[in-house]
Design goal:
This protein is of the alpha+beta class and about 190 residues long. Helix content is about 35%, strand content about 15%. It has 4 helices and 4 strands. It has helices spanning about 10-30, 45-60, 80-95, 155-170; strands spanning about 35-40, 65-70, 100-105, 110-115. The longest helix is centred in the first third of the chain and has 18 residues, at about 10-30. The N and C termini lie far apart (about 105 Å).
């Protein structure tokens, strides 16, 4: 806007490259939150319910929002309180992993609710290679009544270390409890 007008002679290819780099850098700093959807039915079984809630916890841990949809069919529409009861159970089980962003509401034949992750999204951890079955655990390190580690708990060595720690904790002697003796004073 100077008078007389001032122009700058520049390499247009270099200008376009620098602009694309700035745009790329700004895209890198943005956090994209995707919405995952989990569908329930009013007559869902306990095992299916637990599996779906576990998937929801994984999604929330990865920083995704979760849309919970409860689908009604036929005469199930006459009992929306059953659906509300299931969604309340979902909220209870998700617990500290997420918070309710949009409360449950009935839209046609579906009841929907949106859950958001409780804290800031954690960077996704890369998938670890699965433990091979060629590394047997020494029989003396596994307690007979100790719970078996879940297959998704890291490497085989970590699982064996956890089982060993549980076994040692069970075999450790209990700490003695100090006794406090209170004597009544003689009124004489």
């Amino acid at each position: 806007m100077a008078n007389p007008p001032v122009c700058r002679i520049m390499d247009y290819g270099k200008f376009r490259y620098e602009e694309s780099q700035k745009a790329k850098e700004s895209r890198k700093k943005t956090i994209q939150v995707s919405i995952k959807e989990v569908k329930f039915r009013p007559k869902i079984g306990k095992g299916d319910f637990d599996t779906k809630v576990r998937h929801m916890q994984d999604f929330l841990a990865d920083g995704h929002k979760v849309k919970v949809t409860l689908q009604f069919r036929g005469r199930e529409m006459a009992h929306p309180e059953l659906g509300a009861r299931i969604l309340d159970a979902v909220i209870e089980q998700v617990g500290p992993h997420g918070k309710v962003e949009t409360m449950a509401r009935l839209e046609g034949r579906n009841m929907t609710m949106v859950l958001a992750p409780e804290k800031k999204a954690v960077a996704k951890k890369p998938h670890e290679p699965k433990a091979s079955h060629s590394d047997p655990v020494a029989p003396d390190t596994v307690a007979k009544d100790a719970p078996a580690p879940a297959p998704s708990e890291g490497t085989h060595e970590e699982a064996a270390a956890k089982v060993t720690a549980v076994a040692e904790a069970e075999q450790a002697p209990a700490e003695p409890v100090a006794e406090v003796v209170v004597e009544a004073a003689d009124p004489a």
